[in-house]
């Protein structure tokens, strides 16, 4: 029964051993150089990246409450070949109404005037509307991507095309796009963007407008990242070019631009250092939608004017974070740096004990077994054995 107990003790003994720290001076220049380089790398990471770049000593608020107000200004006159001269102002070329963080600026359009509900030939540009005879126009079926419901008749649209007759708004929509944008003057329109952020965690609020008593400032200033960064008035052409496109190319078929406002505020500095950064990203090179205005003539006939509007959609988004010194994050970052410094010693120990040519020597110098003191009986028995060994040695010498 002694063997299992002894085997269990031998198995569990190393698991219950405790190793204390022992320092051994090793004159190994390569490992010493590695140790210093690792320490410098850790210090550079902690001081440079954690504390300076990431500001790890600060408490942060990355979810501010934001407010965005927009106002578009400008006047343009369209001169389409197939319509009367028309004046466009902010109420016409801005969709939806002013004040939203999503804004559409009309730069081109197609007019289909005086439409009335009735029957007429479908447009030959609609593939599902082309026919050769009446059987190609099933009664009651809508024209796929078309303008109405088929009546069952195949009629002549013009001298070269036959299309299905439809019940819908007639005449069908005009799809002839002007070669140049009709509202080319829109490149000089201005967009006023008023933005306010509130970091509730620090009870801090800041706006992107300059605090001034001059009532004419916002009517005369224009945003410039270097000379006028506090002016929230942007020229449309400048915004399009900042997104990497020319206004003329984008105005013809429309497009979409993302306006991103970023706040990165270090509240350990005065509030004047907290300023927004603007960036403009082109999202799409085509954008349009349709709208109509309805009216009745003197004979109570119901008409509508259909507008297919092309233009630039501006999507305004606000992102931000604020930081301020805090005891807890500073202590956590400092403790993390101390722990990283300890890893340099661990790595160098691993190199000495497992990779160096004199690893056996380092093992013997670094690890030493500390034996507990023996009891009185064990000490007497050991002394008796030592005396007996000495007597035996003397007897052998006499012989």
TrEMBL record:
Membrane-spanning intervals of the chain: 37-57, 334-355
UniProt GO molecular function: ATP binding; extracellularly ATP-gated monoatomic cation channel activity; purinergic nucleotide receptor activity
Region (Disordered): 370-399
Catalytic activity: Ca(2+)(in) = Ca(2+)(out)
Record-linked InterPro entries: P2X6_purnocptor, P2X_extracellular_dom_sf, P2X_purnocptor, P2X_receptor
Residues holding ATP: 71-73, 190, 288-290, 308
Keywords: ATP-binding, Cell membrane, Disulfide bond, Glycoprotein, Ion channel, Ion transport, Ligand-gated ion channel, Membrane, Nucleotide-binding, Transmembrane, Transmembrane helix, Transport
Glycosylation (residues): 188
GO aspect biological process, one term: calcium ion transmembrane transport
Topology of this chain in the membrane: Multi-pass membrane protein
Disulfide bonds: 120-170, 131-154, 137-164, 221-231, 265-274
GO terms under cellular component: cell junction; cytoplasm; plasma membrane; postsynapse; receptor complex
Record localization: Cell membrane
Task performed by this protein: May act as a modulatory subunit rather than a functional channel.
Family recorded in the similarity comment: Belongs to the P2X receptor family.
Full protein name: P2X purinoceptor
């Amino acid at each position: 029964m002694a063997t299992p107990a002894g085997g269990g003790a031998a198995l569990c003994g190393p698991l219950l051993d405790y190793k204390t720290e022992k320092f051994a001076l090793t004159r190994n220049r390569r490992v010493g150089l590695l140790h210093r380089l690792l320490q410098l790398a850790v210090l550079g990471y902690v001081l440079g990246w954690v504390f300076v770049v990431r500001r790890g000593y600060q408490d942060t608020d990355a979810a501010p409450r934001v407010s965005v107000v927009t106002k578009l200004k400008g006047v343009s006159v369209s001169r389409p070949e197939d319509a009367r001269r028309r004046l466009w102002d902010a109420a016409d070329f801005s969709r939806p109404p002013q004040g939203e963080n999503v804004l559409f600026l009309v730069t081109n359009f197609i007019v289909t005037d005086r439409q009335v509900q009735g029957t007429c030939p479908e447009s030959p540009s609609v593939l599902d509307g082309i026919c050769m005879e009446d059987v190609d126009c099933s009664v009651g079926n809508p024209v796929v991507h078309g303008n109405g419901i088929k009546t069952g008749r195949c009629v002549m649209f013009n001298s070269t095309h036959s299309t299905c007759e439809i019940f819908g708004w007639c005449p069908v929509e005009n799809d002839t796009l002007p070669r140049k944008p009709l509202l080319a003057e829109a490149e000089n329109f201005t967009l006023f963007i008023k933005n306010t952020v509130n970091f509730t965690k620090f009870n801090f609020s800041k706006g992107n407008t300059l605090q001034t008593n001059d009532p004419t400032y916002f009517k005369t200033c224009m945003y410039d990242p270097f000379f006028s960064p506090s002016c929230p008035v942007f020229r449309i052409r400048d915004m399009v070019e900042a997104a990497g496109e020319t206004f003329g190319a984008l105005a013809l078929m429309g497009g979409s631009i993302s306006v991103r406002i970023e706040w990165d505020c270090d509240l350990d500095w005065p509030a004047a250092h907290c300023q927004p950064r603007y960036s403009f990203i082109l999202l799409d090179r085509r954008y349009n939608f349709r709208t109509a205005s309805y009216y009745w003539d003197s004979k109570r006939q119901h008409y509508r004017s259909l507008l297919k509007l092309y233009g630039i959609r501006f999507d305004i988004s606000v992102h931000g974070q604020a930081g301020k010194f805090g005891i807890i994050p500073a202590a956590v970052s400092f403790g993390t740096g101390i722990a990283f410094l300890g890893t340099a010693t661990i790595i160098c120990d691993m190199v000495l004990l497992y990779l160096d040519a004199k690893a056996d020597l380092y093992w013997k110098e670094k690890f030493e077994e500390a034996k507990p003191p023996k009891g009185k009986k064990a000490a007497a028995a050991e002394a008796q054995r030592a005396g007996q060994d000495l007597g035996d040695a003397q007897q052998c010498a006499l012989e």
